[in-house]
Amino acid sequence: MPSANVALSLSARTRTTRFLFLSALLAFVCGLTTLCCTASAVAAEKSNDPNIIYILADDMGYGDIKALNPECKIATPHLDQLARGGMVFTDAHTSSSVCTPTRYGVLTGRYNWRSRLKSGVLWGLSRRLIEQDRMTVPSMLKQHGYYTAAVGKWHLGMDWTLKDGGIATEKSYNKKTNPGWDVDYSKPIQNGPNSVGFDYFYGISASLDMPPYVYIENNKSQGIPTVTKAFFRDGPAHKDFEAIDVLPRITEKTVQIIDEHAAASKKGKPFFIYFPLNAPHTPILPTPEWQGKSGINAYCDFVMQVDDTVGQVMQALKKQGIHENTLVIFTADNGCSPAANFKEMADKDHQPSYRFRGHKADIYEGGHRVPFIANWPARVKAGTHSDQLICLTDLMATAADIVGAKLPDNAGEDSVSILPALEGKDTQPVREAAVHHSIRGAFSIRKDHWKLEFCPGSGGWSFPKPGKDDLSQLPPIQLYDLNADLNEQKNLQSEYPEVVKELTDLLQSYVDRGRSTPGAPQENNGDVDIFEAGKSAHKMKRPQKKKPAKAKS
Fold first, then answer.
1. Which of 62, 85, 223, 437 is an S-S bond match for 96, by CB 3.0 to 4.6 Å?
2. What are φ and ψ of residue 183, in 5° steps?
3. CATH fold match for the domains 49-427 and 437-538
4. Contacts (Cβ under 8 Å, ≥6 apart) of 164
5. What's the CATH fold of domain 49-427?
6. Where in this protein does the record put region Disordered (predicted)?
7. pLDDT by residue (tens digit) across 281-295?
8. Which element (helix H / strand E) includes 101?
9. What are the residues facing 151 on neighbouring strands?
10. CA 122 distance to own-chain centroid
11. 229 vs 25, which has greater pLDDT?
């Protein structure tokens, strides 16, 4: 038998072992509790990430909303309410004055002229524009638990398969020689919205006046075109496709997505919906209930229908109880188009460009200064205004700031966060400058109250118009003081050469570094010459009138 001392030693050893075991168990339980609490905190934090809905109107002027233009003659009650409940930005700009390039900037946070598209727009059968492996707003938000959807007009290219096995290009549509019938519409579409971060897509490939006239869901055409239809341009169409139905259908689809994902968003799975409208772009086709409602013309009726679309989205958010923590942004891809019929509107004292010179396609303010309303009751004070200079490329950095993400150097090169402005915490300008681009590839740069334009004339479609009006006698550059001359009437380029040099050097540095924000230098896709479009326009003299043909003897 063991002695008493040995027994006592064994008992003490047992107690020590038990103590160590219990201590370890307690530490494990505490660690597990801490881990669970941390996970719960993270989940709670993620549940506070807002839903984001980005509504992009198509060809809609700054002056088309009463909340922005007191003299507006169009009734826009839902947009006015959106503005009353949030913040209006009075100095917001697109990166381009036409469709495709602006959309590239919105989704990538990168100026459009850094891409392969140096001027103009894509077409309905054009190949993808967003570069492979480039981070986009949806791909970034997906990394942070978001469900992502795009509904509406894409216009950023996608790869359609030809019947001979090749890939369609801009040349695949030619009204006379190749009107789009060589595409195999039964084959899946490659490199569309799903390839750049969207979980779901429903809509049309480009503008509603560009074939093919079919709906697309994810990577499949919804039905095979069997007839030719013309919504300005002739082209392949599905027999049931009608342009007038597009805005109601994509609105219904967006509301459906809100309804389906509302519950998940309350549990920490927020959603991002990119909602690029087809309206009020041509074809200007308001539905019967809106026809004649404005008392002005069809374009203004269509604007009222756009306003109603915004109302339906807001109603869905409130119905689902997620309005408070949803950031809704309403803006436009460029200014109003001449197709809206400026004379008809002027006769009724409506000015879609407000007090700004020019319109869609131009380097003037009317081409790229657009409405911008942000509504987010949880964090944006109602009834506020901001005069910060912002650009639609700023969505990327703003979304990253909201979710606490750090963008890599090769993403969002021209994007800055406007979250400080949204929360009323901005004490200085959020961006150093903004760069604008016209349909013909003419540049301008804006810093503080100075705006330097690297072309004579409009650079677009208004007077003086390149290719139509004589620009050879105009100065090759234009400098305006927007504080004193918002309508860009007095060119000060000869009076302030130091300002011209400062802004020229700044723009050139943005080009050379491949970015306009801090970070490692990046490469542009192809050469960028800030003077090229202006030089070619300056050489244009007044077109010669054709001499009348001699009568035949």
1. 437
2. -85, 140
3. no
4. 182
5. Alkaline Phosphatase, subunit A (3.40.720)
6. 511-553
7. 999 999 999 999 999
8. helix 99-108
9. 202
10. 15
11. 229
Q: How far apart are alpha carbons 259 and 226 in whole angstroms? A: 34
C-alpha closest to that of 41 among 33, 29, 51: 33
Q: How confident is the model at residue 47 (pLDDT cuts 50, 70, 90)?
A: low
C-alpha closest to that of 126 among 173, 177, 79, 82: 173
Cα–Cα dist 321/266, whole Å: 9
Buried b (16+ CB within 10 A) or exposed e, 317-343: beebebbebbbbbbbbbbbbbebbbbe
CATH class of 437-538: alpha beta
User: Strands (DSSP E) along 288-347, which ranges?
Assistant: 326-332
* Residue 502 contacts residue 514 (beta carbons within 8 Å): no
Average pLDDT of the chain, as a whole number? 91
- Shortest CA distance to 364 belongs to which of 268, 489, 236, 277? 489
Per-domain boundaries in the chain: 49-427, 437-538
Distances (CA, A) of 503 to 415, 437, 449, 455, 536: 19, 15, 12, 14, 21
DSSP three-state, residue 102: helix
Distances (CA, A) of 94 to 347, 391, 407, 465: 28, 6, 21, 21
Q: What is the pLDDT of residues 307-323, one digit of tens each?
A: 999 999 999 999 999 99
pLDDT digits (tens, 9 = 90+) for 186-217: 999 999 999 999 999 999 999 999 999 999 99
> 17-44, pLDDT tens digit by residue?
554 555 555 555 455 444 444 444 444 4
User: How distant, in Å, are the alpha carbons of 6, 8, 10, 11, 138 from that of 17?
Assistant: 16, 14, 10, 10, 55
